[in-house]
Amino acid sequence: MAGSFGFAALGTGADALASNARTRVRYWNLFSGGDGANMIAMLDAFRTADPDIDVKDSTLQWGNPFYTKLAMAAAGNRAPDLGVMHMGRVTGFSPGRLLDPWDVGLLAKYGVREQDFNPKLWQRGIIDGKLYALPLDIHVQLCFYRKDVLKKADLLGDDGRMIPVTSTDEWFDVLKRAKAVQKKGLQTIGLWTNDQNFQWWFFVAFYTQLGGRWFNDDNTEVLFDTDKATQVLEFLRRHVTDGYVIPGAPTGEQFVNGAPFTWEGNWSVPVFSGAKLDYGATPLPPVFGSQATHAESHAFVLPHQSDRGGATNEGAHELAAYVVKHALQWAAGGHIPAYTPTLSTAAYQKLTPQNEYVGAMDHQATEPKVWFAGSTGVLAQDLGPVVVSSTMGSARPDKVAGTMKSHLTKLLASKNPMDGRTAAQGGAVA
Amino acid sequence: MTTSAHMTTGAQTAVAPARARTATATATVRRRQGFQHGGWFVAPFLALFALFVIWPLLRGVYLSFTDANISGDDASFVGLDNYREALNDPAMWDALGNSAYFTLLVVPCITVLALLLALLAHNIERGKWLWRLCFFVPFLLPSTVAANMFQWLFTQGIGLINETFGLDTPWLTDKSYAMLAIVIETLWWTVGFSFLLYLAALQGIPEHLYEAAKLDGANAWHRIVHITLPMLRNITGLVIALQILASLQLFDQAVVMMDFSPGPELATRSFVQYTLEQGFTSYRVGYASAMSIIFFVIIAVVALARMWLLRNREESGR
Amino acid sequence: MTTAVQVRKSPRRPWTPSQIVLTLIGVAVSAVFVAPIAAALLTSFKSEAEAAAIPPHWLPQDWTAQAWKGLWETGNITNWFVNSLVVSVCVTSVVLAVSALAGYGFARTEFRGKTVLMGIVMGGLMISPAVLGVPLFTTVQQMGMVDTYWGMILPQCAPAAMVYILYKFFQGIPRELEEAAFIDGAGRWRVFFTIVVPLARPSLAAVGIFTFIASWNNFLWPYMVTNNPDLMTMPNGIATVMNSYGIQWAQLMAGGLMAGLPLIVVFVFFQRQIVAGVAHTGLAGQ
User: Where is the chain membrane-spanning (chain C) (predicted)?
Assistant: First the structure.
């Protein structure tokens, strides 16, 4: 029975057989965990708000499988109607070839306008004068701390928040004092020491704090400062050598069990809130003097379809606009909503610890704007493992800084395979 | 085919003398029947083979000389650039090294383990079906399912392996353990196949050889060393060859157990994984094609080396 | 055809000390082999919180079928199951048909260029999606078959190994059987279908079983050629598509068992044939 059913569906897929008179919008996202639950709740709300649109959502594993599959689907002209991407990946995703531009008029019809967004953020989505990425949020790397532990070590200020830290010495002093009072057998801080993504994000944050640069404005020259990089790498490494980290130990679980600190993305907020912890979250400490923490944005995109248009396309616009505008639920996942009217609502300002780190959006450390950058992009893939090798002690920090520079030199000279241009030639950069 | 007749079909053995007798008749029939239609028998297969094996190979060769990307748009000719870059790409050598390291660990372990399991199952008189079932059943699981199971078993903190053996090893997150974890998973998952080959070969060893040895007073150990192992030489060659070819193509287990990452400090990124990354993540189809062709040459060399070894052994009249 | 692996009917002999020791070792080793599957099964009956508990434990404290229920309610698993079935059945049928014809053609018919073609086909033994994945993908992309059943099925339908196995078998069939029929006036095709195919049934079964297992479990090619989660097969879907609530180990184990169980059940019932089939196809590689 199933066999003959399948034969009938050859070439189209079993799912296409489900007949449906309504407008069907196929939507791919990369949200799992708490984000996934929030997204589903928002989609359900949308389904109630507009029952004429049938949202068919699919969640793929985050990271490379997602981008690979999205690119291949767009290249093979079998793309979904709506997708989600990281802002940093948009430039390398060959707008115009793998992505279609948004119809700004159509977005306005559903209530989303440029003036409702941080101008810089909106500009990141514009390439060759057209909007390719509609920002949904800003997400940042945070220093989570347990108030119950820090209180015992006298590390909380009068406002009940962690005392400010402005230098590496102060930071390690904080760790030392926390370690003295914490539960034995646990690490003092979770640092994702062997995760190439987190280590890369932390590196970007602290390198930016030091005022380090990547390339000159024309993207013709590498300005990577190996001394500053070495300083950052030594700083990360010292957490391991001073015994504040158990390499490989699961970070979130340790924190829930009583470890005083963990550095995580803001998406861990629902996890820790769900565990009913007494905790706070600040941007990564400005140990090198200035505020900066790694930040990225989720954005809606229209994967390329040669016959894009009609009711399905309009449905995709309506859905994206709805989710962007109703992002309070999304903020529960720890993200800072990109739609600024949400930020000024009383409901948002009451959210903790979100209200403690909302200022992070003004001190964003981002990757350089080149085609090879972006979440799990070529740059992160190349440099992430190198940073890990330093933090884990397989290679010396100064040597690693040199390796990073040579990688950057090579990448800057390389051509974007999608259009054959280097970063200096403006390979698909706004 | 180099093994003794028992491996093959009964029909084949029975036929040999008959064949000689009817050789003349065959020739006559062949002429009369007009065998030129034979091509039609192979046509359907050859069509598929040409489309999905030969054409991709030729296409791969062509693409490897271009800067083609994933979109399928026009590409331009770049000569030997891709090959030059590949051979100077430390990451490629690294990935090749990882695949080779994996092969080096897996092949001897699986061969020995498969042989021991087969000897065990062959020599226990009761419940043969049960041993066969237990040792072979992992092989029936999809690679991703087996990998997911071990990913969970190996995860520090929540995994049962550390718990059961009283360890606290960072199997999946430390570069010195990651490949080991994949090797252990692979042993469990695929040893059943080689086990079955050995078991079949064991059952094909004529009983009278053992009887004769027993009469000569050989004990069990001697019988294994002097009868069983020599009789298993060919099958061992086959097991090793198949395992080398399969292990060099490491991909499924590694990516699933490492959550589609290249592993801690790139420790588990295999050649296949790196090639696909270049093609589908960096969109460099031309470069990835060049690596595919390099890999094809490596595989071909291994396969030809085995043929050459076999022929040499036959000629030396083993 | 006598199959390579046979259950030998030996008379029940009394337990000797060496048999007792061997049996005990057998039990211990079997336990190690079954343990991961047992752990997966037990975990699929835990709650998600219990499945990720530190420290872990083997037996569920509270037995619950929520993971299995959730699998049916939230996932695409029924789609994947159907897709797997469609793909495996199609691949197996096509492979059986074309490789039987080709094996016979190469073994028993004459045509121009046969030797050269056979050589080329043997060369094909060295090519797999792992070796030539990227060019194969672009070929299939050019044909417009990315994200279709055809794209998943057809590239799995040209296995040189299966042709070689059947070629070896057909070479061993007595020519007189065919010749008698020729003299009676039967044509090449009739001989093939009425005499050769029935004789080859055990070999065909072996090839069919092996192909089905390989195709059901295939990950790499379906992974490369499908992007649409609705079109994925079981191994691919389980590995790449997480449901929207993160890694849920209990559900992942339940899904994995669902992908693995059909073959395991079939194996229990057809153990002898499958063992013979796998051994036969494997051994033919010599």
Answer: 20-42, 80-104, 116-137, 149-170, 191-214, 249-270
